[in-house]
């Protein structure tokens, strides 16, 4: 029996002449691209170029909405009402769908970014507000959720198509949330360590927290960040380790 898994990365985060990440190289490794929609990063030209290249390489396209926080890269927590959250997601998903359509593709999935994602991982009502808005626009959208968090519970309660993800280069708390970037152990920088850890989690179908605790979970996709200095090396190491263990890689 073939074992299949998706590799995703956040990309399209450049802005005008300012370049962020190594999207062209990362797109050779991943199977799904989470494209920034202009609020926390990216712009119309970057979205179009990223989606066009993703299509050319057979990489699935996802909308990656975040808080309206270009200066903070969407990593600063902002308190919004449910209506505001819904409008925030609707606006960005709409932009992504339009740009993808013009490039000849479609948006297959949606993944929340940064602080918006972390807050929704802790708050089911907040996650639901975001997902309800997205599904009202595109009912067949796949919701990529951080596994075993309020994101997953909200998506399941809505009866949505779900892809549960784990992170290759992020530490986990014992409640399956990500270790805050301000804390030690939040990031894994060594490619071999990241790849070995991902394979252990996928084989066990469990999140392994920094404490060593295992949290059983469904795993459909692995997030490979595209903006760090080690991102490309980690992406290549994870893909090679999975393929070496007999996992087939495919978009959602």
In total, the number of strands is 10
Taking pLDDT < 50 over at least 5 consecutive residues as the criterion, the unreliable ranges are: none
Share in helix: 25-40%
Q: Give average pLDDT, whole number.
A: 95
Helical stretch tally: 8
Distance between the termini: 18 Å
Commentary on this structure:
The protein has eight helices and ten strands. Helix 1 links the parallel strand 1 and strand 2. Helices cover 39% and strands 19% of the residues. It is an alpha/beta fold. The chain starts with a strand and ends with a strand. A seven-stranded parallel beta barrel has the order 1-2-3-4-5-6-9. It has a two-stranded antiparallel sheet with strand order 7-8.
Write the layout of secondary structure elements.
Blueprint: E1 3-11, H1 23-26, E2 32-36, H2 44-56, E3 60-64, H3 82-103, E4 107-110, H4 114-122, H5 124-137, E5 142-146, H6 150-157, E6 161-167, H7 191-204, E7 206-208, E8 214-216, E9 221-223, H8 231-244, E10 247-249
Parallel strand pairs: 1-2, 1-9, 1-10, 2-3, 3-4, 4-5, 5-6, 6-9
Antiparallel strand pairs: 7-8
Distinctive features:
globular; 7-stranded parallel beta barrel; 252 residues; alpha/beta; two-stranded antiparallel ribbon; 8 helices
Question: Care to give the gist of this entry?
Answer:
With 252 residues, the protein is an alpha/beta fold.
């Amino acid at each position: 029996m073939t074992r299949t898994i998706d590799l995703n990365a956040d990309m399209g985060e450049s802005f005008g002449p300012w370049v962020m990440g190594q999207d062209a190289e990362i797109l050779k490794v991943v199977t799904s691209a989470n494209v920034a929609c202009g609020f926390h990063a990216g712009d119309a030209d970057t979205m179009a170029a990223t989606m066009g290249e993703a299509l050319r390489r057979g990489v699935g396209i996802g909308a990656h909405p975040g808080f309206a926080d270009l200066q903070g890269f969407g990593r600063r927590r902002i308190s919004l009402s449910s209506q505001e959250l819904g409008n925030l997601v609707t606006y960005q998903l709409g932009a992504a769908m339009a740009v993808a359509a013009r490039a000849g593709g479609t948006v297959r999935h949606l993944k929340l970014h940064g602080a918006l994602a972390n807050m929704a991982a802790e708050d089911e009502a907040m996650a639901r507000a975001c997902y309800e808005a997205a599904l009202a626009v595109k009912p067949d959208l796949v919701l990529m959720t951080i596994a075993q968090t309020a994101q997953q519970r909200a998506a399941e309660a809505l009866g949505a198509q779900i892809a549960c993800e784990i992170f290759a280069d992020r530490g986990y708390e014992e409640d399956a949330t990500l270790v805050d970037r301000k804390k030690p152990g939040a990031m894994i920088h060594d490619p071999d360590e990241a790849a070995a850890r991902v394979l252990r989690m996928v084989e066990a179908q469990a999140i392994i927290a920094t404490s060593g605790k295992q949290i059983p979970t469904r795993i459909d996709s692995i997030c490979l960040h595209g903006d760090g200095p080690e991102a490309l090396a980690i992406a290549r190491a994870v893909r090679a380790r999975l393929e070496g263990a007999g996992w087939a890689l495919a978009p959602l």
